[in-house]
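Structure record:
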Amino acid sequence: MDRIKETANLVKSLNHVRSGNLPDYEFIKLVCAYFDLIKSDDLQSADFQFLKFISNASGIPHYYDLLVDKFAREERLEEVDLKTMASMLYETSLHIDEKTKIHKFQKQILERFQKFEQNRYFLSATTSFGKTFLIYEIIKKLEYQNIALIFPTIALLSENYERLFTNDSYRFFYDEFNIHTLSDVEDLEPDSRNIFIYTPERYLSFVDKYSDINIDFVFVDEIYKIDNEYLIDTSNKENERDTAYRVALQNILSKTPDILLVGPYIEFPDKTNNALNQSFNTFLNNNHFQIIDYNNYEIVNKSIDVLHGRNNKIDNQLSIDLYGWSKNIGLKISKVYQDILSINENAIVYTRGAGTAEGYVKKSILAHVNNDNSKSDLLVKFINHLKGAFSFNDSWVIIQALENRIGIHHGLVPKYIQKEIINFFNQGDLDLLVSTTTITEGVNTSAKNLIVTNSRKGNKPLKTFDAKNIAGRAGRFLHHFSGRVIVLDKEFKDILDGNDDEIKHKNYDPEVEKDEIDYFITDEAFLSREDIERKRNILMEQQKRAIPDEIMAMYKVISHSHKIAVYDNIIKLSPIHGQRIRKLIKAINSQMFLDFEGFQVVLNSFRPVVTSDKLQRLIDNKTTVTRGKNAGRQYSVIVFMLSSYLNSGFRGSVQYILENKTKNTTKGKRPYTIDEAIRESSEFIFSTLKYQLVKYLGVFNLMYKYVISSRINVDMEEVSGIDRLLLKLEYNATTEKGRLASDYGVPSKLLDYYESGEKNGGEDLFDAFEFEKFLQIELIFNKK
């Protein structure tokens, strides 16, 4: 590298920025690349003066801090010239307080939020921009009373909950606010300061219970999920996430003055082209939102390299030669990973799905990569914990990978294990993270290198939005100046360079077909005549049954017609069926035991309105009891699977699949492998139980309690229902501490401990890893 030439070019570029001939975001990329080039050079005082100046000129003085702090460069500012002094003065303007400094573009957004004005903004920015961090500064500046932070996943909910309790930089929020993650808030004080951290579904559950609370500011992350076409996960549950997002957003719009909607790399419709879909612009205009577009501001620069056979020179540090390696993608991953290991760096591998991720690790990477296999004490404790908790006849691939400093991350790994794998990777205990699109769900990772193996998500081609979001995981602000995106499928680069359809909002487009839930969250100006007529007919059916509006307004992601159908089926139940339901409720409330007869009645009452194909099959397919008092009777497969889960947790679900189910293949049926059984159990628990079944059980419980309360003329709260089962399915726990621990992400033995009133044999039964987690969660509980 000719540093004099590179420096001269950088100064020329700065002049072009100041004259308006070069966008500032292009200059940021050049500054990133320059810092990356010189980070290992021998630097003198004059060099440090220039670096101080140029980092502030880019608007991001953190680059200079990163050079000094992260790369252990001893600062040698022996003298300060006028330019350096001016840079230092400018830098002080970016300080929020003594410890906190934002960059120029975060400050531009922060300055938009003003007291005594309506602040409604839609922010689209890069993954490295620091969007979530900015939220907390907005809250401090405007001194909000009640705030809701809406995240797409429990993992992100957990991360922000933990941050507020354990990170000293966020001490202000711990001191000034009550912090809630549960939808039923004990001793809610609406006149005090509250932060509610929810998923969209949990937010809707909260407003069902506390409809009168005033929320001053709402932040909604990953807002692209209002548009079904933007959804990036391959699992069935994600196909319905747009409904929860749109219903929650409509509720927020009606009651909250200040709103910030955030997402990465969103393509906004062109306001001047009337031929394109204008539904999103209509949504923004009707609700007084302003767009803030920072999609081009890559605060961490990215290099994109499509690998070929021989002599792939990535940069001065990394070269990759694939000549002689087979076309087997797993072997190519192994070679690229080995070359990255040789320069003491880590990497993330993007794969198309959970089975593919595990297959690459098991069949190729573990067999062809040599690392030192040294492990931290905590990682050893974690591996030993998993061996104890998931000890079956065969070794689980997740454990095999961890023993070789490799993490596997996808949606079918139990949630607390996902969290720990990310933590170990970020701490440097793992060298490789093999992942699916779960890394784009707001998971914060620290990897300079991203290896892209495929241009698809499951069986669907990636969108440009997906590709940008995936590539955005290469490099992390305050950790790296630049990130490398190393591509093994050239179609990925073509998609990355392409264009997407613009984001849409179906509730603001009169031409788009609506479903029944949309009728009640859409202004009639955007409904067809047929939609309006159907809506009126539904309301007439509700009036015939005299079901109150406040009842119908609950469980907003279930349609009015489906609620009415469940109500009708409950009304028709025979006395013997009513007796069976009461027996079920008693068994649940006394010992969380599933009475098969009663639960089958419940399933039958809502089966006609179930829309999930998988849940339909689990209800329709029957299995015969072979022993005990119910021997010879048939019940839905889901009855047995749920019973195994309630009795023995995740392990019980896996054991049921290993012992009772076979897998269909082209060669016929065969038993499940341990890896397949764990993935199947995860899909059943985290999608079918916690996303699908729970909402139908919730509607049943609502209508059952309403029917009984009307018959005996008592308040609904006095009627016993299956509320405890609903808590168990949603949170894995029923007590307040148990549910909070579940949100935090802990092993099942800790949940059992808190569920049993902190008895259950006590702390002596914890393994070494569980005890570490116990100490962490106790710190949070003791702060509350």
